[in-house]
Design goal:
By secondary structure, this protein is mainly α. It has 2 domains: about 25 residues, no CATH class; about 170 residues. The protein is about 70% helix and about 0% strand. It contains 8 helices and 2 strands, in the order H-H-H-H-H-E-E-H-H-H. Strands 1-2 form a two-stranded antiparallel sheet. Helix 4 packs antiparallel against helix 7 and helix 7 runs antiparallel to helix 8. The longest helix is centred in the middle third of the chain and has 52 residues. It is elongated and about 130 Å long.
């Protein structure tokens, strides 16, 4: 029979790992900071770890060594809320900016119409469009006043073609008369003066509105978003920025 003897030692030996060289630090410097290889190794590891855990828990674990799990979770929630509220603020600010641009465009149109009337008088495109619109209204009104409907032998309501022809002829004559009257020097001068006043007043009103919305946009974009705010607070800031 064979006998085996077991001996015990108080010493602990370590024979290294494959690829290790004594006195050479692969991932960490003497002061505890990471080498280039260490930064690459552990940044990839941490990123993979955070992605593997995902969402809130992954973020908390990723930041655990710096803030602690609870603090990391609170920071995650806070950052997420601030981003969401900032996005909502930007949405309202963009809305204000769009309104400002719209009012500026309308002001530019009225200013252009004013200058057109001022420089070209009754030959201006603005005044001729005004005349055409008035003539069109006259045409439609005369056509409406004519009784062009009749009953056929079956009692159905149909259009009397002869009456319709007469109605169109009369309406066209009335429209031409209206246009000719409005193009007389006397009528044109009165209408042009009135139209210039209307376009100038409209342009000033639109410009005032544009400036208000531009101010609202600027003030809203300067509003600092914090985690203690709510969506109602951002909406309130939007209304205050508008000022009306």
């Amino acid at each position: 029979m064979k006998h085996y003897a077991v001996t015990y030692s108080d010493s602990l030996s370590h024979h290294g790992i494959k690829g290790q060289k004594w006195g050479v630090r692969r991932y960490q410097n003497e002061d505890g900071t990471r080498t280039d290889a260490g930064k690459k190794r552990y940044s990839v590891y941490e990123a993979k770890q955070a992605a593997r855990e995902g969402g809130l828990i992954g973020y908390a674990k990723y930041r655990k060594s710096h803030y602690g799990r609870k603090a990391a979770i609170e920071e995650y929630k806070s950052d997420k809320k601030v981003k969401k509220l900032t996005k909502y603020r930007d949405k309202l600010a963009n809305k204000a900016d769009a309104k400002a641009k719209n009012f500026r465009e309308r002001a530019d149109e009225d200013n252009a119409a004013y200058e057109d009337l001022k420089n070209n008088g009754k030959k201006s495109n603005t005044y001729q469009k005004f005349v055409q619109d008035a003539a069109s209204r006259t045409y439609n009104q005369v056509l409406k006043d004519y009784d062009t409907e009749t009953e056929d032998e079956n009692g159905n309501i149909v259009i009397n073609k002869e009456q319709m022809r007469k109605a169109k002829t009369a309406a066209a004559a009335a429209a031409l008369g209206q246009a000719a009257l409005m193009n007389t020097n006397y009528a044109a001068s009165i209408n042009i003066e009135r139209l210039m006043g209307e376009h100038k007043q409209a342009a000033e009103g639109y410009m005032d509105s544009a400036k208000k919305w531009e101010t609202a946009h600027e003030e809203l974009m300067n509003t600092e978003i914090s985690a203690i705010m709510s969506k109602k607070d951002v909406k309130k800031a939007y209304k205050q920025a508008r000022g009306w």
